[in-house]
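Curious: why these numbers?
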Amino acid sequence: MDTRTNLRLFAILALTSFAGCASYTTPGGGVSIPEITGSTIAQSLARQPAAVFPAHVILARVQSARYESMSSRGYGNGRYTVVTTRDIEQESDFRQLASLEGIAGIGPLNRLMLTENVQSALDLREAAAQLHGDIVLLYTIDTTFRTDARSLGPLQLVGLGFFRNRKASVTATCATAFLDVRTGYVYGIAEGTATEEQRTDLWSTQSAIEKARLRAERGAFEKAIEEVSRVWPSIYREYGRAGATAAVPRSQ
């Protein structure tokens, strides 16, 4: 067997080995809204609304510690991370929110304002205060893969062969909450869920699985934005009377 033939055989074996080891890592997890805004019952009841209306709303996508997906990575080394990459959000979403009555403006948190050690919603509120925000619209994405044999949670490495010959789905839920920047008062919550189901023979590559994940997460975010658009008017009617509320010093 000549050298050229040996090289061809080696290349074929290498490609076969690589294909056999191809894998996909599920994205990191979401966060619990009650947990990140957590306090004692007495503290929660003592908090009062203090936002000035029309309100400047700051958007913050928060994920679990060490969050990572194929399209984004959480910033920071604390208990929570903040995703500043816009992989599922679109400009039309922000225009939709900015058009709501009682919202003076919409803006995202960026890394320049963030601490690397996010431990609670207080850190997000402090960052939003630097942007002169009145309300933080906090949101998180939780994504789960499921086959007829098993459910896959965050940060699981699976071979692509795992998805073959099975019915598979990816479900994403986007949970949101309106937080008063000054006091941490929760004005309301909204949520949206979307599922992508496909024959698993279509999930033969990382790219195919990733596209299904992004479609599910995008769908969940869209539904959450629709719910936010329904919830906000009632918040504005209740708390935005007379056009403004006197501000009070921020507290934990």
In short: The radius of gyration is 22 Å. Confidence is low (pLDDT under 50) at residues 3-20, 243-252.
